[in-house]
Design brief:
This protein is 25% helix and 28% strand. It is α+β, with helices and mostly antiparallel strands and 339 residues long. It folds into 3 domains: 5-70, Uridine Diphospho-n-acetylenolpyruvylglucosamine Reductase, domain 2, CATH 3.30.43.10; 75-227, Uridine Diphospho-n-acetylenolpyruvylglucosamine Reductase, domain 3; 235-338, UDP-N-acetylenolpyruvoylglucosamine reductase, C-terminal domain (Uridine Diphospho-n-acetylenolpyruvylglucosamine Reductase, domain 1, Alpha-Beta Complex). Strand 17 and strand 18 (291-293) form a beta hairpin. It is globular and about 60 Å long.
């Protein structure tokens, strides 16, 4: 039996802690419930929005349609051989809980993505990644409900067209599917990846010489906790902007003008550190009204308690403009903005 709430506050359903209301709200626990609400004539002409962990959305105003909160749960091993295990997780599972499940069972591959906020279903949509590992590296396939036909379809790794914080679900198939389960291909004999960022340094601090996947996860958790504010304490959505990718010639122009520019080579050019760009524009630690750029990580925009989504959005626009003015580089939001 579907339970529909009216004029529901979404403050506890977005990690910015923004107190906006939804005209209608329901939480679904099965695909059957999802199909039932999508078939309901009352909601047929009403705008709908899906919410998972609410960690990658900026709500700038009340939502006058129906919020469908994803509460699909379940994790199961579906296949294994001598080297790999295939683990299927429901899209409403908390991502970090899934990572911990894998580590407890000795399944390697996701440990570098520990403590990324959000749900399992958001992972392939965003092609989430951290410390040298991305969703596409461990992804096998997913199942998604076609919102037009109400039939389940499967998507392979290639079908998802993964890019940097991109997938087919953010582009040509945006708003056409609801991801229900994600199937991961994980290693039973994992080789840890400690080369990216400060993992190796953190492991040395922990006096770990031969790290396990649990050690790597602990190191990532320690690093992230030291750099990123806890959304339960200070409202935020993690990294607000994507690191911009530029051509070799653009990088050479920047390097000539800004010798200390922080960049990493890619297959097609260079990826700039958006946090460095923002910091050079004087935003790091700056408070504007009730929001600001975090004192320890300029890439993270925070709500100091009473900010509106509109305030945070205006701050983001101001930061984008200043980076464009100073560096002639455009930074784009990683966060989905409802404006």
């Amino acid at each position: 039996m579907l339970h529909i709430e009216q004029n529901k506050s979404l403050k506890n359903y977005n990690t910015f802690g923004l107190d906006v209301n939804a005209a209608h709200f329901t939480s679904i626990h099965s695909i059957g419930e999802l199909i039932a609400v999508l078939k309901d004539d009352y909601f047929s002409d009403i705008q709908k929005m899906f919410l998972g962990g609410g960690s990658n959305v900026l709500l700038t105003k009340d939502f006058h349609g129906l919020i469908i909160h994803n509460n699909l749960k379940g994790i199961e091993v579906v296949e294994r051989d001598s080297d790999f295990v295939f683990v299927k997780a429901a899209s409403g599972e908390v991502w970090h809980d899934f990572v911990l499940y894998c580590i407890e069972n000795g399944f390697g591959g996701v440990e570098n993505m520990s403590l990324i906020p959000g749900s399992v279903g958001a992972g392939p949509m965003q092609n989430i990644g951290a410390y040298g590992v991305e969703m596409k590296d461990v992804f096998h396939e997913l199942e998604a409900l076609n919102l037009a036909t109400l039939e389940i379809e499967k998507f392979s790794n290639a079908d998802c067209k993964f890019g940097y914080r991109e997938s087919v679900f953010k582009n040509e198939k945006k708003n056409q599917y609801f991801i229900t389960t994600v199937n991961f291909r994980l290693s039973l004999h994992p080789t840890v990846n400690t080369t990216y960022g400060a993992i190796q340094q953190q492991l040395q601090t922990m006096n770990v010489e031969h790290p396990s996947i649990k050690n790597v996860s602990d190191a990532v958790i320690a690093i992230r906790s030291s750099k990123l504010p806890n959304p339960a304490v200070l409202g935020n959505s993690g990294s607000f902007f994507k690191n911009p990718e530029i051509s070799v010639s653009e990088y050479e122009r920047l390097k000539n003008e800004f010798p200390n520019v922080v960049a990493y080579p890619t297959n097609n050019g260079y990826k700039l550190a958006a946090g460095w760009l923002i910091e050079q524009c004087g935003w790091k630690g700056k408070v504007v009204g009730n929001c600001g750029s975090h004192k320890d990580q300029a890439l993270v925009l925070v709500n100091y308690g009473n900010a509106s989504g509109g305030e945070i959005y205006q701050l983001a626009l101001a930061i984008q403009q200043s980076v464009l003015d100073k560096f002639m580089v455009e930074i784009t939001p990683e966060v989905n903005i409802y404006a």
